Amino acid sequence: MKLKPVELMLGLIVLLVAVLLAWHALARDLDGRHASSPLKPWFDSLKSGKGPCCSDADGWALNDPDWESKAGKYRVRVPRHQWLPSREQPRPPEGLDMIWVDVPDDAVITEPNRAGRAMVWPIWGSDGLTIRCFMPGAMT
Questions:
Q1: Residue 5 lies in a domain
Q2: What is the SS3 string spanning the chain?
Q3: What range defines the domain where residue 101 resides?
Q4: Number of domains making up the chain
Q5: Phi and psi (nearest 5°) for 57?
Q6: Which pLDDT band holds residue 89 (cuts at 50, 70, 90)?
Q7: What phi and psi values does residue 41 have, to the nearest 5 degrees?
Q8: What is the pLDDT of residues 2-24, one digit of tens each?
Q9: Could you tell me which residue, 60 or 31, shows the higher pLDDT?
Q10: Would you say residue 83 lies in a domain?
C-alpha cells in the first residue's frame, strides 16, 4: 500500500504533536515536589527570549561557584550530559562531569529574582547543550 503525500504529511504532523506533548509532560513537576510552593505560579510564568522556562521543576539553583558574570555576560557550570533534578537529588551530584557554558543573551531572565538564588534551565539536545533560561542571583 502506497501512502499519498497528504497522508504522509498528516502522519508527520501527528507524530510531531505527539513528540511535543511528551516533551511538555516531561517538563512538568510530575512528582509534585514543587506543587505547594508559594512561588510556583511565578516560576511557571518565567520566560526568557528563548521561551517559557517551564517552572522550578526543570531548573535548579546554582551554588555561587557554578556561575559567574564578566563584562555583562554570564556563564554557568552544568553537567556535560543530560541530568535532571529530583526530590532526592535537587542539584548535580559530586563527581558528575561538569562544563562551563556561556549563557546566550536571550536566555537571561531580566525580571527581579523572587527566589534569590541563581537558577539555570539547561537543554541537552541533538545540537548539543544550550541554556534555555538563566536567572542571576545575588553572589554571596
A1: no
A2: CCCCHHHHHHHHHHHHHHHHHHHHHHCCCCCCCCCCCCCHHHHHHCEECCEECCCCCCCEECCHHHEEEECCEEEEEEECCCCCCCCCCCCCCCCCCEEEEECCHHHECCCCCCCCCCEEEEEEECCEEEEEEEECCCCC
A3: 31-135
A4: 1
A5: -65, -25
A6: confident
A7: -60, -35
A8: 767 666 565 555 444 343 333 33
A9: 60
A10: yes
pLDDT at position 76: 97
Please indicate, yes or no, if residue 63 is contained in any of the structural domains: yes
In a domain, 17, yes or no: no
| CB burial string 76-95: b at 16+ within 10 A, e below | bbbbeeebebeeeeeebeee
pLDDT band at residue 122 using 50, 70 and 90 as cut-offs:
very high
In order of 8, 27, 75, 109, 125, the CA distances from 137 in angstroms are 48, 23, 13, 11, 26
